[in-house]
Amino acid sequence: MLHEDRAVRRWMALLSLGLLLVPGFSSAEQAAATAQSPGLKAFSLREAITYAEKRNPDLVAARARVQAAQAAARVPRAQWLPSVGATAQILGSTVNNSTATVLSNPRVDLPRIGATRISAEPDFTPYASTLVAVGLRQEIFDFGRIAAQTAALDAQAELERQRTEGAKLDVTLEVTEAYWAVRAAKSVAQAADEAAARASTHRDAARAGVFAGLRTPVDLARAEAEVARFEVAKVRAQGSLAAAQAVFAAVVGVPDAALDAGGEAGEDEALGSLDALLERAREGSAEVQQAHARVDLAKAETRAAAAQMRPDIFLTAAISGRAGGAPPSNGSTVGGHGFAPLVPNWDVGVVLSVPLYDPVLAARRDALREVEDVREAELEATRTTQAATVRQAYLGLVAARQALGALERSAAAARANHEQAEARFKAGLGTMLELVDAEALRVEAEVERAVGGFEVARARAALQRAVAEVR
Questions:
Q1: What's the predicted TM-score (pTM) here?
Q2: Signal peptide: which range, if any (predicted)?
């Protein structure tokens, strides 16, 4: 009795969780899993993965980050384009030994132009100065500085792309699990219906036996209790199915509130030997590729920091109008008392700029070299971790497949036992308790087989994710 009640409670709990009924079903169970729920859109696993790769919110955000990184990588290249700036100034200041005063600015390169006012005595009288200028600067040769900056940002974009590939594998895993969850929930609902139908048949048989005086009222009461239990299981199974379909829709990214799983199950193809899988994981897994990208990024950032200390050659040109209110030494004056920039000038030049030593840039370069060592160590750690992950998933898959074979045999034996108990009950040789015990044993075996199938599917999906296998 305790064994029977515990088995039924466990079965009902597993039904409420919607555990997977995956490869290894009978033909009737396969048909139940494949049948489409009325009124719902249905996707096969391949269709669901393809749709999710385009519409899944996580992947949409990941692709947006890649585009943003690629746009940022185009910024340094713009330094090869000419830059144009302008300035307008009006100042009041003393002009000892100078007839015009202007402020430096980063937009326009202005040479010193103007007569010199020579005076033996300092003059603290303020005079007006005005300036209007437009300037152009064009990069000529940068000794690889811009290329190093671009390479660093390209490496950042590549890292984002590798992260997107990892996110795609994660979404594929989530969609696969959600797909099988829907098929499982449908199979569980079908199993619950069949169990409830058998319980109703047993109850009717018990009622007829009581009326005929062949059964005791205890048998009927027990049968009624079993019918009630399996009706509850049906309700829970339908709730699990609705929840699984809602999760499937969310993971795939469809706008519908629920999505059904259609199509046929895929073939259980061999993934290769453990040695081959380990080799793939050490170099080809998403985590290792991301670690490689982080190493490349660290090296590129170090080169970009070092390149900031290289010379720079650029062309500069400007057109300006200026005036100073102070009288020059030669006595010539300009109208407007310095408030009107009436004196025109233009200039063209080639400038070589050499940063001889910048302690901040040198310190940054040295710090980034240390980061390179960290990223290299992380790469080796990632290789080791991925090898362990693949080995664990592979051994888990082997164990799950072996256990599933035993569970299949157990389920077949439980069905045979139930059929014998049912035949004895119909012939009047068996009791209701014997039949209920056989029913509980059959249901428990079916659930254990479902759990075993779920473990196989989960282990296989985890192994595919670990070796970055795209379905």
A1: 0.71
A2: 1-28
